[in-house]
Design goal:
- This protein has three domains: about 1-205, Aldehyde Ferredoxin Oxidoreductase,  A, domain 1, CATH 3.60.9.10; about 260-385, Aldehyde Ferredoxin Oxidoreductase Protein, subunit A, domain 2 (Orthogonal Bundle), CATH 1.10.569; about 405-615, Aldehyde Ferredoxin Oxidoreductase Protein, subunit A, domain 3 (Orthogonal Bundle), CATH 1.10.599.
- It is about 40% helix and about 10% strand.
- The chain has 25 helices and 17 strands.
- Strands 2-1-6-3-4-5 form a six-stranded mixed sheet. A six-stranded mixed sheet has the order 8-7-12-9-10-11, with helices on both faces. A three-stranded antiparallel sheet has the order 13-14-15, covered by helices on one side.
- A hairpin with a 5-residue loop joins strand 1 (about 10-15) and strand 2.
- It is globular.
């Protein structure tokens, strides 16, 4: 049927408490919520009580692909994991985005997603095989690392099977336990712990199907355009993050090609992903300790992946532990962790092991940064200065540097890396142009043109002013929520600038045109953004039910209003374009409290929400065809006043 182009057509539902396996028609959700995070959020809204805890059987753990998954040359093999996160404060709906090929395998097996509810009495794993599913005993897998589980299941079921698993950290419900899938694709937000709470060790998938587009000729033409427009990541400095001679490019299914994803092979033959944050989270510490680069950062990442720990959370914990040690609050003796040897392999082995098994001082650390600091007391909570989200993520693309990031961070349950990248990646390319890097082209003038086309005004590319940032935030959120539902690779989408086009401009219509070619139904650019706006408002409504209180909750940690910016990612001088493209430095900047509140005023007005409270309005929710959501929030007293003529 034509309406199923782009979709497998079914969602798998697993009740681990009863053992019942059922199916849901995807098309009940696809027209309004596309796929990915959109469908996951809609199912969550209808099924998870706001009072449920992350580790309760009532929580849903959802694995979803999007309508573009399974097509080559689009960078569309991403998949998402959603549910109530144990890491956020308070616990609330959150999400994680993974690559590799597991999501495509699920789609080829005949499912657009999996919804898991309940809790098993004993360890189990799920085997999904070409339209069928079976819950199997996982007693032999329990206690094993994610990497061991993957190899054991591939040995039992065949090398072509895709596997996602939690490690010992997930089994012990460490709040920042992660998932690991094929090609070392990792997923954060504490969903490894949710998996462990349900006694679900792994999901193995195998599929032989293939996806067919409604208009294959049009899709081929658009794929060619995308290939010709794709931009190399000029000026990111990523090549400096990874040392060592044995690096190999490792692409996800359907990759476009311009990605930094690589694997490393150590001297002992150990291989694994070693890219971006997972490559650098321990690198600086190891360099200080050993005085030169060695393989310790790689093994630190491998330890986290195997135990199932999110490296970003471990990174912020390490910074805090270092400060506590220097302040005399914590010592080697009272923690059982060699804090005096921070940067060594011994330190990271001990830290990861104790956290994953909740051994001794690892138990409070397993609660996550903020909760651990509260448990330690003695001023330890005052030493947390480097995070920007409700999940304790690090301050990458800091709001003091990127003013739009202030609103993006304030409104999300976790670090919204896809949204942050939309402005940061062009900024990296601009830095390449500023430093006269070979092949660079993104000038200040081009940056302003990109800002006008993608973010609503040239002011979005002026880092010296708070003006234009509220509008840019709405544009970024709507586009990125649609992207997170299609689902497209963050490194390549949106294509804001293009090395090989005549004017170096990207094309924001490509996503909607690709969706149209796949589905056989015309979807305009603005219509796609409208779907993104609907999904964003749905997630905001979920947050409201779970304790988010509009303006009151849309805030940043105090240090970003008081501690001056020292450096930015790959940019120690914090250089950026200012008015009319003039080069400025954000070094020493803070987020001005009054201007931040002014940005929120503008933002709420643009969103059609109540400016005074930051609450959504019934009129806006109904305009977005979220009538049941509006009625629910109104009954709970969680809607604001609609002001037709507010200025």
């Amino acid at each position: 049927m034509i309406e199923r182009y782009g979709y497998a057509g079914r969602i798998l539902r697993i009740d681990l408490s009863s053992g019942i396996i059922a199916h849901i028609p995807t098309m009940e959700y696809a027209d309004r919520f596309l796929g990915g995070r959109g469908i996951a959020a809609r199912i969550y809204w209808g099924e998870v009580p706001p009072e449920a805890n992350a580790f309760d059987p009532e929580n849903r753990l959802m694995f979803f692909t999007g309508p573009l998954a399974g097509f080559n040359g689009l960078g569309s093999s991403r998949w998402t994991v959603c549910g109530k996160s144990p890491l956020t404060m308070p616990e609330q709906f959150s999400y994680s985005n993974l690559g590799g090929g597991w999501g495509v395998q699920l789609k080829f097996a005949g499912y657009d997603g999996i919804v898991i509810q309940g809790k098993s009495d004993g360890p189990v794993y799920l085997f999904v095989d070409d339209g069928s599913a079976e819950i199997r005993d996982a007693s032999a897998l329990w206690g094993r690392s994610t990497i061991e589980v993957r190899e054991m299941l591939k040995g039992e079921l065949g090398s072509s099977v895709g596997v996602v698993a939690c490690g010992p950290a997930g089994e012990n419900m460490v709040r920042f336990a992660s998932l690991l899938a094929d090609q070392d694709a990792s997923g954060s937000s504490g969903f490894g712990a949710v998996m462990g709470s349900k006694k679900l060790k792994a999901i193995a998938v195998r599929g032989s199907g293939r996806m067919v587009a409604a208009n294959p000729d049009k899709l081929r033409e658009l794929t060619r355009v995308v290939r010709e427009l794709k931009s190399d990541l000029i000026g990111t400095g990523q090549q400096d993050l990874i040392a060592g001679p044995k690096m190999k490019k490792d692409v996800c299914y359907g990759c476009i090609g311009a990605c930094i994803r690589q694997t490393f092979e150590a001297k002992d033959g150990t291989k694994g992903k070693f890219t971006c944050g997972s490559a650098w989270f321990y690198q600086e510490r190891a360099l200080r300790y050993y005085g030169q680069w060695n393989e310790t950062p790689f093994f630190a990442n491998r330890l986290c992946d195997g135990h199932g720990l999110d490296t970003d959370s471990v990174y912020t914990l390490i910074m805090w532990l270092s400060r506590c040690h220097k302040a005399g609050i914590l010592s080697d003796d009272d923690t059982g962790i060699p804090l005096s040897k921070l940067g060594s392999l011994e330190f990271i082995e001990t830290l990861v092991g104790k956290i994953s098994l909740r051994d001794g001082f690892g138990d409070p650390l397993a609660q996550g940064l903020t909760r651990a600091a509260d448990l330690v007391g003695r001023g330890a909570e005052q030493l947390i200065t480097d995070y920007t989200s409700k999940a304790g993520n690090n301050s990458a693309y800091c709001p003091r540097m990127y003013l739009s990031s202030a609103l993006l961070y304030a409104m999300e349950p976790r670090q919204p890396i896809q949204q942050l990248h939309e402005i940061a990646i062009p900024h990296f390319a601009w830095l390449g142009w500023l430093n006269k890097a070979e092949g660079s082209y993104l000038s200040s003038d081009l940056y302003r043109r990109v800002a006008r086309r993608f973010w609503g005004s040239e002011l979005a590319a002026d880092f010296s002013t708070y003006e234009g940032k509220a509008l840019a935030t709405t544009k970024i959120q709507d586009r990125e929520y649609a992207k997170e539902s299609l689902i497209l690779c963050d490194w390549m989408w949106p294509i804001t600038h293009a090395r090989y086009s005549e004017d170096h401009m990207g094309d924001p219509t490509l996503e909607s045109r690709l969706l149209s070619a796949v589905m056989g139904k015309e979807v305009a650019e603005e219509e796609l953004y409208r779907i993104g706006e609907r999904i964003f408002n749905l997630q905001r409504a979920i947050a409201a039910r779970e304790g988010h209180r509009g303006r009151e909750s849309d805030r940043l940690p105090e240090p970003f209003h008081t501690r001056p910016l020292k450096a930015s990612v790959q940019d120690p001088e914090c250089l950026a374009p200012g008015k009319d493209g003039a080069v400025i430095s954000r070094k020493g900047a803070v987020v001005d409290r009054e201007r931040f509140e002014g940005m929120k005023d503008q933002y709420y007005q643009l969103r059609g929400w109540d400016v005074a409270t930051g609450l959504q309005t019934k009129a806006k929710l109904e305009e977005l065809d979220l009538h049941d959501v509006a009625a629910d929030l109104e009954q709970r007293g969680l809607v604001g006043i609609h002001e037709e003529t507010s200025e």
